[in-house]
Design a protein that fits this description.
- Its EC number is 1.6.99.5.
- The protein is α/β, with parallel strands linked by helices and 605 residues long.
- The chain has five domains: 12-116, Glutaredoxin (3-Layer(aba) Sandwich), CATH 3.40.30; 139-349, NADH-ubiquinone oxidoreductase 51kDa subunit (Rossmann fold, 3-Layer(aba) Sandwich); 359-442, Ubiquitin-like (UB roll), CATH 3.10.20; 447-535, de novo design (two linked rop proteins), CATH 1.20.1440.230; 550-604, Alpha-Beta Plaits.
- Strand 8, helix 12 (249-264) and strand 9 (280-286) form a beta-alpha-beta unit.
- The longest helix has 18 residues, at 467-484.
- It is globular and about 80 Å long.
- The termini are far apart.
Length: 605
C-alpha cells in the first residue's frame, strides 16, 4: 500500500477490524479475501479502493466489523463469503448490502453509519481516538492523524517544567486504578537529584474480562510511545520500559514494530528531532502474575527479581527501578498525554467532573446486549453505560448489579443505577474505578458465589509475602465456600466483615487492601442472599447447586418445549403445548431450563 494514497482524503478505504476479538471470529480471512478480490478486479473501479487492517473498534459483539470511508458505511458480523457482495454492490456501485447493516433489535431499524448506532452515540473517544481508524503497523497512518505533533511541540517550544504544569492543570489522574494525579507524580520525579531516571508503562492488565490496555497497545501503539517520550522529556529520563502481559502476543508484536519505526523516523533514540534530547524504550514481557499490576512488584519483575511488592513508605518517584527515580503510568494514561499537549490542558479538562477530568475506557461485559470497549466522559451514569450504550439486559431478565474495578472492585446494586461513574463516586459506594473492568449481572447471578469466585482468583494470585493477604484471603474463601455448599453459620457474616476490614488496613499492597471489596460490597447490598444461604439453605438465584431446586410454574408454561430440548439430563417431560414437568431425581441443577425459558415459567425454590 503506498503511503501517498493513504493520505489522499478522496480515496475510498475499507477498514477491517483486526483486534483480537474480531481475529478470533475470522476477520483476517475477510481482510485477505478483500485484498485478493480487489487485486483481481483490476481497473473496474471508478474510485480507487484499498483495504486496511485496523485495531479493535470496540463493538466486539458484532465483529468482525468492516467500515468503508468516506462512504460512512459499517457492516457487522462480516464473513469472508460476504466479500463478493461488498465488492460488487458497495465498492463498484455505491449501494449498501442491507443484510450486513446493524439492525436495532427493538425498533427493527437498519443503520448505515456506526455514528447513528446507540452503542457509539454516547461515546467520546480520546484514548481510543485512532483505534479502528488506523493501521497500527504503519507509522504514516498515525502521523496522518496528528501523530507525534505533540512531541514536536514539546521539544521545540516547551520546557520540561511547562510540560509538567500542562499535565498537572489538565487534572489527569492515573487510569490504572489508584487515580493518583499524573502531574504531581511527574513533578515529584523531576524534583529528585538522582540520575538516571526512568519512565515505565504498566501494560500488565490482569483483570478477568478487561482488555482496555490491550486494545490500545494493539491498535494504537504510537500513542503510548509518544506519551512516554513526552513524559521522559518532562522528568529527565533517558530510558523507558513497557511492561506487557506475556499473553498479549499481538500487543508485543505491534509495540515492537512501532518502536522500531519510531527509531527509524527519529522519534526515539539519540537527539530526537534534532532537539538534543535522547530517549529509548524497551519491551519487557511479564510472567502473567496479577500482583505485578502493583507498581513496586512490577518494578521488581523488570529488575529480574520475583514480582513481589514492597511497602511504599518511599515512593517509586524517589526510589524506583534499580533504586532510581521512576514514573509509572498505565497504557491509557500515556495515550492521553499527546491529546493534552495538542489540545491544551483547559480544553482537555472541559470533559468530566470536578475531580475526575477527561474520559475513561471500560470493557463492558457480562449480561448485556452490546459487549465491548466503550469510552465515555467521566460522570456518565451507570444507566447510560449499561442500557443506552450496552443495550440493556438480554432475554427479558432483570438487571441486578454491576461489578466495577476488576477482582478487587465491588458490586453495585440496581438501586444505584443512576450513579455517575468517576473515581470518587465509585469509591463512595464501596467499589472502585480500577483499570476499567465493568461486568453486568442479571437476576440469575448469585452474589455470594460472585464474592467466592473473586476471592478464589485473588487467593491464587496473592504473592504470599504478607500474612494478612496470604492467610486472610484464604480464610475468607473457606467461609464463602462453606456458605455456597449449604454449610454456613450465622456467625460467618461477622467473621467475614472483621477479616475484610483487617485486610484493608494490614495488607502490604493494593491487592490485599482491596481484596475484601467483593465480599464487603455484597454483604452491604445483598445481605439477604447470605442469610438465605445460611438460614434457609436456599440460593435465591438458583446457582449454588446443593441448595437449588428448579420447578415449572404450570400457570406460565406454554408447552413450547425449549426447556426439554435443552436439558442435558433428559429430566424434563411433557408434550408440545402441554405443561412440562421436571424430574427432581434426574435434574443435575445446571440451570439450562431456566436460562432457555422465554416465559419465566421455570422457577427456583
Amino acid at each position: 500500500m503506498d503511503q501517498r494514497a493513504m493520505l489522499e482524503p478522496n480515496i475510498r478505504t475499507v477498514l477491517v477490524c483486526c483486534g483480537t476479538g474480531c481475529l478470533a471470529n475470522g476477520s483476517m480471512d475477510v481482510f485477505r479475501a478483500l485484498q485478493k478480490q480487489l487485486e483481481t478486479e483490476g481497473g473496474e473501479f471508478q474510485v480507487r479502493t484499498y483495504t486496511k487492517a485496523t485495531g479493535c473498534n470496540g463493538w466486539c459483539e458484532k465483529g468482525p466489523l468492516v467500515k468503508i470511508v468516506p462512504d460512512d458505511i459499517t457492516y457487522c458480523n462480516v464473513k469472508a463469503s460476504d466479500v463478493p457482495a461488498i465488492v460488487d454492490k458497495t465498492l463498484k456501485k455505491g449501494e449498501v448490502v442491507k443484510k450486513l447493516l446493524y439492525r436495532d433489535p427493538k425498533t427493527k431499524k437498519y443503520f448505515k453509519s456506526h455514528r447513528e448506532i446507540s452503542f457509539y452515540t454516547k461515546q467520546l473517544k480520546v484514548a481510543l481516538r485512532n483505534i479502528g481508524e488506523i493501521d497500527p503497523a504503519n507509522i504514516q497512518d498515525y502521523i496522518a492523524r496528528d501523530g507525534y505533533q505533540a512531541l514536536a511541540k514539546v521539544l521545540k517550544s516547551m520546557s520540561p517544567e511547562q510540560v509538567i504544569d500542562e499535565v498537572q492543570r489538565s487534572g489527569l489522574r492515573g487510569r490504572g486504578g489508584a487515580g493518583f494525579p499524573t502531574g504531581l507524580k511527574w513533578k515529584a520525579c523531576a524534583s529528585q537529584a538522582a540520575e538516571p531516571r526512568y519512565v515505565v508503562c504498566n501494560g500488565d492488565e490482569g483483570d478477568p474480562g478487561a482488555f482496555m490496555d490491550r486494545s490500545i497497545m494493539e491498535g494504537d501503539p504510537h500513542s503510548v510511545i509518544e506519551g512516554m517520550i513526552i513524559g521522559a522529556y518532562a522528568v529527565g529520563a533517558a530510558a523507558g520500559f513497557i511492561y506487557v502481559r506475556d499473553e498479549y502476543d499481538l500487543a508485543v508484536v505491534n509495540l515492537g514494530r512501532a518502536i522500531e519505526d519510531a527509531r527509524r523516523s527519529g522519534y526515539l533514540g539519540d537527539n530526537i528531532l534534532g532537539s538534543g534530547f535522547s530517549f529509548d524504550i524497551e519491551i519487557v514481557r511479564g510472567g502473567g502474575a496479577f500482583v505485578c499490576g502493583e507498581e513496586t512488584a512490577l518494578l521488581a519483575s523488570i529488575e529480574g527479581n520475583v514480582g513481589e511488592p514492597r511497602d511504599k513508605y518511599v515512593y517509586p518517584t524517589e526510589k524506583g527501578l534499580w533504586g532510581q527515580p521512576t514514573v509509572i503510568n498505565n497504557v491509557e494514561s500515556w495515550a492521553n498525554v499527546p491529546v493534552i499537549i495538542n489540545r491544551g490542558a483547559d480544553e482537555w479538562a472541559r470533559v468530566g467532573t470536578a475531580t475526575s477530568k477527561g474520559t475513561k475506557v471500560f470493557s463492558l461485559v457480562g449480561k448485556v446486549y452490546n459487549t465491548g470497549l466503550v469510552e465515555v466522559p467521566m460522570g456518565t451514569t451507570l444507566r447510560e453505560i449499561i442500557f443506552d450504550i450496552g443495550g440493556g439486559i438480554p432475554n427479558g431478565r432483570q438487571f441486578k448489579a454491576v461489578q466495577t474495578g476488576g477482582p478487587s472492585g465491588g458490586c453495585i446494586p440496581a438501586s444505584l443505577i443512576d450513579l455517575p461513574v468517576d473515581f470518587d463516586s465509585l469509591t463512595s459506594v464501596g467499589s472502585m474505578m480500577g483499570s476499567g473492568g465493568m461486568i453486568v449481572m442479571d437476576d440469575r447471578t448469585c452474589m455470594v458465589e460472585v464474592a467466592r469466585y473473586y476471592l478464589n482468583f485473588l487467593a491464587g494470585e496473592s504473592c504470599g509475602k504478607c500474612v494478612p493477604c496470604r492467610e486472610g484471603i484464604r480464610r475468607m474463601l473457606e467461609i464463602l465456600t462453606r456458605i455456597c455448599n449449604a454449610q454456613g453459620h450465622p456467625e460467618d457474616l461477622e467473621i467475614l466483615s472483621s477479616l475484610g476490614e483487617t485486610l484493608q488496613v494490614a495488607s502490604l499492597c493494593g491487592l490485599g487492601k482491596t481484596a475484601p471489596n467483593p465480599v464487603l460490597s455484597t454483604l452491604r447490598y445483598f445481605r439477604d442472599e447470605y442469610v438465605a444461604h445460611i438460614v434457609e439453605k436456599r440460593c435465591p438465584a438458583g446457582v449454588c447447586r446443593s441448595m437449588t431446586e428448579f420447578y415449572i410454574d404450570a400457570s406460565l408454561c406454554t408447552g413450547c418445549g425449549l426447556c426439554k430440548k435443552n436439558c442435558p439430563a433428559d429430566a424434563i417431560s411433557g408434550e408440545i403445548k402441554e405443561v412440562h414437568v421436571i424430574d427432581q431425581d434426574r435434574c443435575i441443577k445446571c440451570g439450562e431450563c431456566i436460562n432457555n425459558c422465554k416465559f419465566q415459567a421455570v422457577k427456583v425454590r
